[in-house]
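A quick word before the example. In earlier lectures we treated sequence and structure as two separate objects. From today on, think of them as two lines of the same record. Here is Olfactory receptor written that way.
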Amino acid sequence: MDKNQTEVREFVLAGFSHRPYIEKGLFVLFLFFYVSTWVGNVLIMVTVASDKHLNSSPMYFLLGNLSFLDLCYSTVTTPKLLADFLDNEKLIPYDQCIMQLFFLHFVGAAEMFLLTVMAYDRYVAICRPLHYTTIMSRGLCCALVAASWMGGFVHSTVQTILTIRLPFCGPKQVDNFFCDVPPVIKLACADTFVIELLMVSNSGLISTSSFVVLVSSYTTILVKIRSKEGRRKALSTCGSHLMVVTLFFGPCIFIYARPFSTFSVDKLVSVLYNVITPMLNPLIYTLRNKEVKSAMQKLWDRSGLTWKI
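And the structure line, produced from the sequence above:
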């Protein structure tokens, strides 16, 4: 960077609107989303941890970890978004911006890998039911979860290093409500073509390849099952996973698996996978799963209250 250029020490987040009455309404709406995300995901984690049957099942062990990741993922961006609805300036220091970017990709990539692990779990459960408990041992499940976190850490470290090596000297408005790689590197005072290609190939490859693996896994399950009744049960079992995969991977592929050009719908798509999907995941899994609903009912009954799901 030229010595005569001033290094940027903070960025301005564009947000959604600069009209106070609109922002106050959005604050209430997104606060509802965030509280719902916490309530739903914490309820799943507590239910899985307190029920012996669910806690011993590989599928629900992975589901509990997914809920924890959803909480972390939503918390990376939503609290800052809520604060900015009440702040006209919407400033974020450079260091905090980079930290937000790092944890966004860290947790996001870890969730992608975990969803792939969950697809493998369903494949083993349906296609090799007699060996399921042997193959999907608690030790293997813990190792796969740890590998998901490690994969997310490596991916995020690469993205962050490529970003902080760029010089920033103005402009400083990030065209989104949080710091992410595509809008941040657009502000660099340097040619970012090669960096963009590296980042697109990194994030785009992870999201697209994971999605292909997931779809291939579920397709293989359906092909291997010959009976209509068996396919119906398989679809019922995997239906919730397919919904979660579609809601999470669809927006991620749209954002990261293309050159860093800006579309008018980018902010809305970002809201979908940053705010809405972590809130919907608990509903998707509980509404379609009798075991989870039954365990929640027992947990509620033990609390001394009466409630019917």
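Notice the following. The chain has a mean pLDDT of 85. We will return to this example when we discuss secondary structure assignment.
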